Amino acid sequence: MSPAVDAVRGQARTRVWVPGRPVSLEHTLGPMRRGTGDPAHVVDATGAAWIAHRQRTGPATLRLERCGGEVLATAWGPGADEALDGVPDLLGGTDPHDGFAPRHPVLVEALRRFPGWRVPRSRRVLEALVPAILEQKVTSTEARRAWRVLLHGYGEPAPGPTPVPMRVPPTAEQWLRVPSWDWHKAGVDSKRSTAVLAAVRVAARLEATLDVPHDEAERVLRLVPGTGRWTAAETLQRSHGAADFVSVGDIHLCGMVGWALAGEPWADDERMLELVAAYPGHRFRAVRLVELSIGAGLVPPRPRRAPRYAVRDFRAM
């Protein structure tokens, strides 16, 4: 993305990125959106994505829109230029996907069906880690509710003419100021709130892992109390563009992979890793393509043998 195509429109800055390949905003950015009510990530009626980021240079709102073979990026706020600089990474422009050669029919068809999907690299570690911690051992409904409540209470208004009121995620210092009763009101138990606070206390060190190999980044993340293998992988996939880190510890995910790739509806983590071992360096890529295949109905529904987890309300406990 060249500064030569920068333009100033009032308080907004715009750039055009020409990726030279198909780009799917929906599929690439989808995992970064924490539900349809995410105050930091909105998709408007035109299909444009609005993302409230906290850059090193300050808060920013980024709007991304596909225009033919180009992506029009518009940003507002003190961190606008930094947000625009990160657009190619955010949309998978640096994703090393060329070495991925799927052999399983499901993966072959998924790659054909979703040519615009790439592994994104947001370069925002804390903004990927905190919601991942909130998702530990709870339903997505519980985790997304907590994220909304906390951002509305401690995030700041996103700059720019957002389509709905949006919030920039809190700084590390702002997370540290959340009192115990507000964690409770958000439905976050003490184990998860303690893990978030442990992470934000070393936020600078975590952000520095963007400049080291992914294995080293995982090692540093897992030094944080309350951040295990699953949480580290969920973070690295989004913040670092780590295409080889699988979310081990998710009973639904391993079952989906086992069903799609081997017809085994109740596979465990070990079996999932066996099935994607044929794609070194791209194991998460294979898993994500399975998820996209299932979402598109390319794989028959998986049998169920147990009831879904019930949504709990920690605020009443």
From TrEMBL:
Entry keywords, A to Z: DNA damage, DNA repair
Record bears the keyword DNA damage: yes
GO MF annotation, one: alkylated DNA binding
GO BP: any one term: DNA alkylation repair
Any one of the GO CC terms: cytoplasm
UniProt-listed PANTHER family: DNA GLYCOSYLASE, DNA-3-METHYLADENINE GLYCOSYLASE
Protein name: 3-methyladenine DNA glycosylase/8-oxoguanine DNA glycosylase
Record organism: Motilibacter peucedani
